[in-house]
Amino acid sequence: MTETPKDRLARWRACAVMHVDMDMFYVGVELLAAPGLRGRPVIVAGSGHRSVVLSASYEARAFGVRSGMPLARARAMCPGAVLLEPHRSAYEAYSRRVMAMFWEVTDRVEQISVDEAFLDVAGAVRRLGSPVGIARTLRARVQEELGLTASVGIGVNKTVAKIASTRSKPDGLLLVQPEDTVAFLAELPVTALWGVGGRTAEALVGAGLRQVGDLAAAPLPQLTRVVGRAAGHHLHELANGRDPRPVVPVREEKSVGAEETFPQDVSDDRVLHEVLLRLSHRTASRLRRQGLRARRVGLKLRYADFTTLTRSRTLSQPFTSAHDLLQHGAGLLEELGHRPQAVRLIGIRAEALEQSTDALQLSLDGREEEWGAAEEAMDRVHARFGADRLGPARLLPAAPRERQGNSKAVDSRARRAQSTADGLSWYQAAPEQPGISAPEG
Asked: Where is Mg(2+) bound in this sequence (predicted)?
C-alpha cells in the first residue's frame, strides 16, 4: 500500500524525540586552538594534583580515562596524554551557539547540560522533513560552522533517544523505530536505564536481572520486592519502552554556583576570601547571562578529612551582583567560627532563583543599581574582549596591578564601585593572556 503524505507525517511525528550530545565537547573546543593534537590522547583538567578530568579525547579513553576521574589516576593510566587547562568561557560561548542552532529548528528544546539537549521535532517535520533529515542537517551545520561534532539519537521518547545517542558515539546518528524499541532495549545492561546506579544495579543483578529485557519480562511484584514499589514501577515502564516525560522547553534552574578544590589544604583566611571573590564573579556572571537573580546565598566548605558543611542565608532583596554574593558568603564563612581543620574545598551558590524581568523593589540607598551597573559594564567588556581582560583588582598579579593602577581605560562606572566586604575599590583591565577565543555572535 502506498504511503500518503499524511501517513508519512504521522509516522515521523510518532518518533520525533532527539537527544543531541556533543562529542568530547571540552576537548573538541580546545582542539580548535590546537589542531596539531588531533589523534593524540588529550585530557582537559586543571593542573593541580587534586584536579579531576573534565573531558578526555577518545584516544585517552581507550586507556580507561573517564570524566570525573582524579587527574593523578588518569595520568598514571595514560602517561603519554597531553594535559590542557580548561577555558570555561569558551565552552559556554560555543554552547550558546550550539543551542541557538537547536532553537532555530524547534521551540521545544530542553537543555540538560552545557553540551547536550533534547529536541522534540514533531512540530517541525512538515517544514523541515523527517527527523533523520533534520538530525543530519544539524550535525552538518555544527561541523561546518563550529568545527565540532555531535552524536544524535532519535526515538519515541527521551529514554530511547538518550540511549540511542550514547550507542551512536562518536560522531554518529541512530534512529530507533517505534516497533524496534523493546528489542533495542532488551540486550542492554540494566545500568543503561535512568535511575539505575551502583546499588540498584547490584540488587537487580543479585536477583538475576542483568539486562533490560529481564526487567521488561519480570513480573512487577518481583521488581518491587527488589527495588521498592516506586522504583520497580518506573524501571518496568522504561524497560518496556514507555517514558511519558515530555521535552520541557523551559527548565527552572534552582541554583547557580561554583566551587574550587585546593591543590593543598588551606588555612589562610586571605586565600579563602580571594577564592570566594573569584567564584562569586563567575557565579554572578552566569546569573546575569541567564536573566536570573537570587534571593539566597549558599556556602559550601569541605575540610581536609572530607567533612562537608553547608550554610545559607536568605536576603531581603534579590541580587545579581558578585558584590552581594561575596558579602554574604564571607559572612557565612565568618559565622562558622574557628575552623578545626584546613579547608580542602570551598564553594558559593546563588539560590532561590527568579527571572530578572519580574518586578523588583529597590532598597532606599539604590545599591542594586550601583553594583548592577558596574558589573554589567564588566560583562560587556568580557563579551567583546574575553573574560580575562577585566576583573577585580585584587585578583590581578601584583606587578601588572602596579603598572596599570592609574590606567584611564577603566570604565568610570566600574571605577566608582566600592566594596567594604572584600577591600575591592576598583576594577582594572588585566594584561592580555593567551587562550582560546570565544566564537563571534
From this structure: 21, 115
